[in-house]
Amino acid sequence: MKLYTHQAACSLSPHIISRELGLDVEIIRVDRGTHRTSDGKDYLAINPNGYVPALVLDDGEIMIEGTAIVQYLASLKPEAGMMPEDARSRRLVQSLLNFIATEIHKPMAQLMMPAYAPVKDALYRHVASRLDWIATRFKGEYLTGNSFGVADAYLFVCLNWSQWNGVDLKRWPILEAFMKRVGERPEVAAALEAEGLAPRADGVFFGSFHDAESIRTEAILRRFNEVFLLTHDPAALQDLVAEDCVIENTQPAPDGSRHKGKADCIAVWTEIATMQGAHFEPESIIARGDRGEIRWRLVWGADHASSVRGVNLMRVRDGRIVEAQGYVKAS
């Protein structure tokens, strides 16, 4: 399956649920401005409405609307309890999902849209009344008790927008505590990190890695990636690789071959960048401080049946790559 997302958008909700369930879901990013996907497709051909999320099933069926997608994902592993199996509890969760979608998600998003500036005060009052209500619905650590579920993931994502739309969540201590609790869940943290989101100092909200070092690291990794995706010209590596660079390659198992020094590392990457009969498809680049990750797919046939997905864990120092560890999904 493929899940199409924007960073920190409502698509983060099914992203979280897919990780909580341990499902094999490929995350594809969509550029808001161009509607191009990170694997080079026109997103409007997948969802003509243009917004995320969209889930493409293995048989080609396309699902849209986050509340429908999370319920479908939960149905794939009902034993995980992300969606209740008994009818009464299920109706409650469906009611909560619809409430969050119409009464919280929509106005919270509108508060960030310039077109709604003339009615901003009315939107704030509306959101406050709805948060007053949802704050009284908790039956334990989470909305329906002490078990995390699909409604919790959706509420978490929408409340995270408070840092950008001016809603002061301090008015609802139970919601602030909920945000911290959800953000500490290992699979939620993994989804946040995969989308380039880090905890703020208060531990309540999660935003982009926008510090200067992270930005510089990402720029270096994007230039590096272009050698393999676009130019196939290894000459650019001369300005990107440090003299003491070290590569741990993806093969052979179990540890991969190790290459030391600028010349040796460039030789390895030159062979990969200029290989015939195969090509790389980009998935994502995430940088945090001096470290980053590049996710990719190597395709050598007509479709993804003849491909392998992998990730490079990178470290940058003084504008040059000093370490690269490669890993692949392989049996």
CATH superfamily of the largest domain: Glutaredoxin
Structural class designation: alpha+beta
Shape: globular
CATH class of the largest domain: Alpha Beta
Determine the mean pLDDT.
93
Low-confidence spans: none
Strand content: 15-25%
Number of domains: 2
Distance between the first and last residues' Cα: 19 Å
Nutshell version of this structure?
With 331 residues, the chain is an alpha+beta fold.
Highlighted features:
331 residues, Nuclear Transport Factor 2, Chain: A, alpha+beta
Can you give a write-up of this model?
The protein has 331 residues and is an alpha+beta fold. The protein is built from 10 helices and 12 strands. Strand 10 (291-299) and strand 11 (307-317) form a beta hairpin. 33% of the residues are buried.
Draw up the topology in text:
Layout: E1 2-5, H1 12-21, E2 26-29, E3 54-56, E4 62-64, H2 66-76, H3 87-110, H4 120-134, H5 150-160, H6 162-165, H7 173-183, H8 186-194, E5 197-199, E6 206-208, H9 212-231, E7 241-248, E8 258-260, H10 262-273, E9 279-288, E10 291-299, E11 307-317, E12 320-328
